[in-house]
């Protein structure tokens, strides 16, 4: 049985469905955030990805501003900014500005992956792989820019100094777990696609955690894919768009999110491929009752403090409904939790 209250949040990729414009995609992201706010979600984080037909969240900080402007209470932030793609000074200035415009509502999640393919990573920054090695130093540099003490330094992010923008370390392997623990920062693991090292990373973070000024004890997130509909059969049908997206990703095919379709024997076989199964290990598809059981089991196994849900499906209305049903699942589990 779940024994504590677990927060629930959204990770948004601004998925572009076939036949949908980018403007329609961005407006749907805002509608989703507004619905999420009403359903009790804690945060709405946007990812940074590049060179993908299906993902519109490449100018992450700009979309964060749009979402924050159109909502009132929900925390809005990055899940994450891929720091090796950027100057720490510019990141501090952008998020300091967001923090001034939307006080106490902006999160800055930081990752070290490129969020794209090798060629695009090199186009963004020719020395990307060297920059990735300086990730710990760059995180510290951002922390310095946000501190009031930095006012006496020669180089300053004046719009960030003293602004309340919490930092989070994101990871898809164990390296970032060591860093998050050392710096005493919250740690979010991308288990919605990087599944093998989830438990190892959580163990490392918890065992090595050092209390800091911002966090007294470990705080963990885990990403999960969620598709909920009225029935298991309807959810499985809707989820074919997600399965196809993953198959396309693994085969190097760039395309928009495709409409759902009737499952064939050939498609079933493709979905059983070990690479697909590994990536979608923590994917919960079904009716509300079915998903509730799967989520409860996952929470018992991981003991995370917050779930960050990813629902990538074709139809916008079905997507919002899935997130609303997931909120009901979490509210029921939290109500039943033994504190």
Automatic annotation (TrEMBL):
It comes from the Bacteria. GO terms for molecular function: oxidoreductase activity, acting on paired donors, with incorporation or reduction of molecular oxygen. Pfam families: Bac_luciferase. Residues 24-305 form the Luciferase-like domain. One of its GO terms (cellular component) is cytosol. NCBIfam families: oxido_grp_1. To bacterial alkanal monooxygenase alpha and beta chains. This is Luciferase-like monooxygenase.
């Amino acid at each position: 049985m779940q024994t504590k209250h677990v927060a629930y949040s959204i990770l948004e990729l601004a998925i572009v469905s076939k036949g949908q414009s980018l403007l329609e995609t961005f407006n749907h992201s805002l509608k989703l955030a507004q619905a999420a706010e009403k359903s009790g979600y804690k945060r709405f984080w946007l990812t940074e990805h590049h060179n993908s037909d299906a993902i519109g969240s490449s100018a992450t900080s700009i979309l964060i501003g749009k979402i924050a402007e159109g909502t009132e209470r929900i925390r809005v932030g990055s899940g994450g900014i891929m720091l090796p793609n950027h100057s720490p000074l510019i990141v501090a200035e952008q998020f300091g500005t967001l923090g001034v415009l939307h006080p106490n509502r902006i999160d800055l999640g930081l990752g070290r992956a490129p969020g794209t393919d090798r060629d695009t990573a090199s186009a963004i920054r020719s020395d990307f792989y060297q920059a990735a090695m300086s990730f710990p130093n760059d995180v510290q540099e951002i922390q310095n820019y946000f501190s009031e003490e930095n006012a006496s330094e020669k180089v300053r992010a004046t719009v960030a100094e003293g602004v309340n923008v919490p930092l989070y370390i994101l990871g898809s392997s164990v390296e970032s777990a060591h860093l998050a623990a050392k710096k005493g920062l919250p740690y979010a693991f991308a288990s919605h696609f990087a599944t093998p090292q989830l438990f190892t990373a959580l163990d490392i973070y918890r065992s090595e955690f050092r209390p800091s000024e911002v966090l007294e004890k470990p705080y963990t997130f885990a990403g999960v894919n969620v598709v909920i509909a009225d029935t298991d059969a309807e959810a499985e049908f809707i989820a074919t768009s997600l399965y196809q997206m993953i198959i396309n990703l693994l085969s190097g095919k760039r395309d928009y999110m495709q409409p759902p379709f009737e499952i064939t024997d050939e498609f079933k076989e493709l979905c059983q491929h070990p690479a697909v199964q590994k990536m979608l290990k923590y994917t919960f598809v079904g009716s509300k009752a079915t998903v509730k059981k799967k989520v409860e089991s996952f929470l018992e196994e991981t003991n995370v403090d917050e779930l960050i849900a990813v629902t990538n499906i074709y139809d916008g209305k079905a997507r919002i409904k899935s997130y609303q049903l997931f909120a009901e699942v979490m509210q029921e589990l939290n109500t039943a939790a033994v504190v």
